[in-house]
């Protein structure tokens, strides 16, 4: 079977601009007013007041564009943020990476600071160089207060970042922030939106084993058979005839990543237990997940989630109609793994990995 890495395509990218900026704060501090920066770092409100009273320029920026307000937003000190804003600090100031104080407060999940910056005129739709908005950042870090504040101030709930075309809902889904999803949906988040690679919020959540998110999306009308578009499957290789047979969906993603309770939930909601991607059904995938190291892959077995065992999952889906004699019908790209071969059944793959327990169960069923 293809390596687990194929099913773990990068979903959640780090906001490089934010982390570069925060990692360089100490080096930049000396270029700004040292006393003011020290006071902000130490959370010393009285010293900040004293610096302002001395006439310190609160809008002065270091060589990389970092302002005192960036520092205060990063520290999450609402009182100091308010002092700086009242003294004339610009809530829309951006450093050389395009990062504004609002992005930093969203990164830290500080809803109170986010609200104060927005009230002072911060742009709820400002983007970093990669196209990440504060809403995406807040959704990724899981701050419901920050998400609500941003949405209340006009943040575009369906904006997509420029690197992979992912939306805030996709961030929340992939990170398992089920408590955020209903709010985003109530503000019009598109449950069917797809990234540039064809991934939806449902697929991200299924791959990561976020069962609460999947349940929330299903209750909101999400498609239990949500699958990667044909164009993405075509990108993975194979002949034109083989490409038409692909169907990597939420159920297969959950099974391939050992999220058996989630996969079982999808079955209970009507998922097709015989769906195949590149000719591999969930039963074929179990043989690899159980013995990843033996199955011709250099990747470790997935961590999985839940309390359902792989053998319990096999019983579950066979009882739901999974074909124990299904055969691999699609030849994978060369060099993936020696266990990918046309005609192989789940039993044969279990035999090739020496999985006697799975062989006995398949024979019994």
Automatic annotation (TrEMBL):
This is Uncharacterized protein. Signal peptide: none annotated. InterPro entries: Ankyrin_rpt (IPR002110), Ankyrin_rpt-contain_sf (IPR036770), Dendritic_Spine_Reg/Scaffold (IPR050889). SMART domains: ANK. The keyword DNA damage does not apply. Keywords: ANK repeat, Repeat. It comes from marine metagenome. Pfam families: Ank, Ank_2. The lineage of its organism: unclassified sequences, metagenomes, ecological metagenomes. Gene3D superfamilies: Ankyrin repeat-containing domain (1.25.40.20).
């Amino acid at each position: 079977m293809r390596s687990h890495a194929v099913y773990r395509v990068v979903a959640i990218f780090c906001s490089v601009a934010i982390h570069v900026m925060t990692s360089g704060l100490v080096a930049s501090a000396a270029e700004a007013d040292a006393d003011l920066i020290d006071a902000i770092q130490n959370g010393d409100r009285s010293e900040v007041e004293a610096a302002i009273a001395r006439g310190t320029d609160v809008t002065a920026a270091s060589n990389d564009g970092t302002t005192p307000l960036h520092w205060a937003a990063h520290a999450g000190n609402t009182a100091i943020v308010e002092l700086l804003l009242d003294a004339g600090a610009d809530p829309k100031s951006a450093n050389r990476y395009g990062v504004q104080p609002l992005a930093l407060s969203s990164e830290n999940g500080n809803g109170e600071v986010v609200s104060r910056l927005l009230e002072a005129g911060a742009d709820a739709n400002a983007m970093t160089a990669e196209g990440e908005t504060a809403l995406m950042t807040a959704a990724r870090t899981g701050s419901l207060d920050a998400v609500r504040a941003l949405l209340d101030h006009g943040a575009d709930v369906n904006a997509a970042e420029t690197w992979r075309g992912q939306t805030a809902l996709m961030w929340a889904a992939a990170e398992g922030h089920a408590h955020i999803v209903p709010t985003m949906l109530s503000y019009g988040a598109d449950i069917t939106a797809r990234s540039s690679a064809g991934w939806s919020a449902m697929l991200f959540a299924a791959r990561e084993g976020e069962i609460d998110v999947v349940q929330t999306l299903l209750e909101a009308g999400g498609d239990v058979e949500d699958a990667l578009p044909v164009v993405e499957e075509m990108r993975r290789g194979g002949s034109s005839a083989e490409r038409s047979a692909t169907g990597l969906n939420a159920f297969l993603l959950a099974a391939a990543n050992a999220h058996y309770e989630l996969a079982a939930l999808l079955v209970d909601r009507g998922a097709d237990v015989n769906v195949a991607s590149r000719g591999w059904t969930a039963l074929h995938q179990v043989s690899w997940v159980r013995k990843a190291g033996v199955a011709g892959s250099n990747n470790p077995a997935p961590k999985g989630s839940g309390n359902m065992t792989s053998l319990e999952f096999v019983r579950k889906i066979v009882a739901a109609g999974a074909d124990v004699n299904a055969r691999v019908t699609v030849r994978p790209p060369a060099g993936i793994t020696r266990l990918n071969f046309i005609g192989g059944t789940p039993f044969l793959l279990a035999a090739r990995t020496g999985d006697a327990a799975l062989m006995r169960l398949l024979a019994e069923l």
